[in-house]
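Researcher: Next entry in the queue.
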Amino acid sequence: MIRRFPLVGLLLATLLPLVPLAQADETTPADAVTPSLPTAPSNRPVAWGLDNGMTVVLMENHANPMVAVRLLLPAGASREPEGQAGLAALTEALLWEGSHDHPGLELMQAFESLGIRANGGVGRDTTTVSVTALSREGGQAMALLAETVGTPNFDPADVDRIKGDLGAARRKSLEDPDTEAAMLFRAQLFAGHPYAHDPDGTVEGIAARSRDEIVAFHNRFYTPQGAVLVVAGDVDRPTLDQWLAPLDGWKGPLVAPIPRLPNWSKPQAQTATRDLSQSTILMGFLTIDRGDPDYPALYVANYILGGGGFTSRILHEIREKRGLAYSAYSYLTGGNAGGAFIAGAQTKNATRDEATALLRREIVRMAADGPSQEEFDAAIRYLTGSFPVQMDTLSKVADRIAVDQFQGLGADGPWRFLEQIRALTLDQVRAVARKHFHPDQIVAITVGGTVAPSTP
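Model: Structure for this entry, 456 residues:
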């Protein structure tokens, strides 16, 4: 079955180190029976480079006759030229509309005839193409993947139809205040940087894109140089080498790195008034990325602040103690060009100011005092204890390894991150919280209705 990822706001699709990626496959029944990997597996992933510049990673797991394949290409929304919003999303969507050897529906039928599930998605840095198949079909799955990525038809009729589909989906998604808030927040937080580009594009941008622009984007950024291919599951190195043969002739240009984000944010606040009974609040600031040595400690501090669900300070203060919101949270998001901290809540218009003040207060408190010993101990227990669950399917393993390898953290990044979490001390987390939480640099966006005047 071929399925494209739904259009989701990138800010809600974070790359948190100990949770499945938002661009990851949904777990299939066959994949779900894959046993949990131990926290220190004897078969660590093996990585090597191909002559065309692509990195290949193999993670063997022969428990079930399945393979999960992830191809990450340097073709995310941040690669779109200024004024060409929606180009990355359109290019990815059109991959599945036919290739040179399998035009139109024949490509979908080729995947489905072999029981192969294939899909794709677009983020800030990458376009991801995913394939899950029985290992006996692995060679044909790889050949179809190479064909899908390398020789799409971009038929003019398909271009027009997909532009209409994506434009309508984007217009519909913006009726959701959370989506609008995420779009406005991204534009403010990353203003002047390619990360401000929305992976879902804009309604106007999608409508304005031409086939020539799509072809040019594909030729420039669908390249093996800098790409990462991860294969997890029931295959050994000699067999995988045979599967990779269709990729031997794939060539492409080297893609320059995205410029780094600045290490500070300009504080600002914006309110978008809509005819709504509730308000969506987002606030945050730029911070370190996942490659920074301080990141594991910052991750723990954020887990305690707002990333830990019902155990987090933000949810406890805003929902449990005061009943102001059903959802209140914070998270870290990181890409190749830098990272950001984001906190948010949804509340009634009448309690918007109170909820906003509480979010700010808890950020200030974490920056000033850090966590308590009890909070620190509980966070370390959960984050280390839950690691096997976060790596218990082939899809999760392939997703995590692919992102870590693409971001320069290495194929064994997930296991090294776990070791770094285990080695932390309370004093380290407190010091990092003081250093990297910036309440004086908060960018805030609110989308909601007007507050009715109080009656005497």
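Model: The first helix runs from residue 29 to 32.
Researcher: Noted, moving on.
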